[in-house]
Amino acid sequence: MKPFLSVHLPAMFAASLLSLACGGPMEEAPDEANPQTLQEGEQALAALTAGIPLCTNLGNGFYGCTGGANGGTPPYTFAWTSNSYVTIDHVATGPTGTRIEGTCTRSSIGSPNQVTLTVTDSVGAQATAQRNFKCTTIVP
């Protein structure tokens, strides 16, 4: 069995010489730019939007809502608020989304449980989304 280099070294050397004869080694193409990554001072390609696509009634006076941002100039900050029928007990945040969980005291959509998400991007643009939802509460 022949060692690897003694067998492949002549071919590797020939490839190197050919590369130099043709103007040098090939350069790799640059990585594709991340469309969400902007340099300081650049404007966003799309307007900032906020959304609350889902609020889940977890039963027994508990709920969970998921929100997110799109467009604008990342990174984003998220701020949740609620009306007097809803408490926000837990907030989790990622790069483009956020989730809250808490308790709610009204089950009627006539007097809605309501949450509001305000998203701010890195250049100060803001977008807001609001969601009403039903909640199953325990009657004492």
Automatic annotation (TrEMBL):
Signal peptide: 1-21
Keywords on record: Signal
Name of the protein this chain belongs to: Ig-like domain-containing protein
Upper taxonomic lineage: Bacteria, Pseudomonadati, Myxococcota, Myxococcia, Myxococcales
PROSITE patterns assigned to the protein according to its UniProt record, in alphabetical order: PROKAR_LIPOPROTEIN
